[in-house]
């Protein structure tokens, strides 16, 4: 490790430690003015009375403030629920907004400074660490002892990192009030872009985008000289920075609905929810364009692009989830399970999530067009469970938190409904395939090792069989790491893409349509 890398690593770890410590720092004081600013007008009188013991009291930690708030606020709601007065229950989760608004002292007074010392110093440290990488190595990818790395082979460092990520996502999704000091730091940037104070998701989007940009530079270093990998990495960096981060905030500044224009249903599972549709319809021509653009992408964009270019056009070139997986998650790509059992589990799970999303959306539309008389509250319950199980627990906690444990494409492989939709099209109606030259294969196993989607690429290469799998995201790494040029990503005639080959599993013989 070079001196520059050591300096970068120290900066990164120090910034991460400081950023994490913000959970335990800061002071909080709730006043009537702060409370009035943080809650809806119709709820202010009730909360003013219920939170009276907290007013004008100074708290020395986030935990103390949030604990008292949840105690008083929860007791009020619990009493109403016990009495069956559900119409008076305040269902809004005010813990985050009130906690953030009540912040005072050093953190609240030094937002920009602390943002620089944590998030941006961390990004700088990451850059210093990745820039010297691979400079003395020839082009191409090799094992380079990756199987013996404590970080990259489920060693103690990998377990610690995975645990940290899992805890962070649990707090982010279900206990965001404890992150209020962290979110405060992003206020200056959010105000500059949209004119609004930062939300939890703005701060997360900022960190997410910086992670893709920094680790994208690592990919440039790792795959220097490889045009396909360079362009692919540049593409996901561009779409994340512009379409997912900057443009949506600028739309809000222009008083238009927040919308990531590259996000597609059913990955964007709330697209047809009532409040989203009403926002589109009430925003004039721009809102109508967003609504029609989203529908066109689902109905025409996905099938046509997948027919011509395969799944890779979205999953490896555009998608934000894929962008993080291909950059920040790249060091863990070899951890994906390549077994036939994992493949069977994958197909059941990912298509089950797609069915779940389709049914939920069907219920939502049926309710919307029937004036909410057809299914009543059942639709809301289904939406809540989908948000909890799929959007939060699966896509967030497991999808990213399990990078160091199960590889970088856990969500894409097992849970993403859009990946399932695109995969079905790719499998049965697409020009895309990975061709193989079995006569040149030396069975080194590099292709299978580095396949993030758990495909045993070598099995196909040894037989000279085209690789046509619904799960393949066309990242091209298998072709990149092949020392003999056996593999090639192609878009050609549909005829001859698929062949039936028997697969022996234990003592049984079964024919699986590959």
TrEMBL record:
Instruction: Using the record's annotation, list all stretches that form the 4Fe-4S ferredoxin-type domain.
Output: 432-460, 463-492
Question: Pfam families, per this entry?
Answer: Fer4_5, Fer4_9
Q: Which UniProt keywords apply?
A: 4Fe-4S, Electron transport, Iron, Iron-sulfur, Membrane, Metal-binding, Transmembrane, Transmembrane helix, Transport
* Top-rank taxon: Bacteria
**PROSITE patterns referenced in this protein's UniProt entry, alphabetically:** 4FE4S_FER_1, 4FE4S_FER_2
InterPro entries per record: 4Fe4S_Fe-S-bd, 4Fe4S_Fe_S_CS, Electron_Trans/Redox
Transmembrane portions of the chain: 112-134, 155-175, 201-221, 233-254, 280-302, 348-370, 385-405
Nucleotidyltransferase is among the record's keywords: no
| Name the UniProt record assigns to this protein | 4Fe-4S ferredoxin-type domain-containing protein
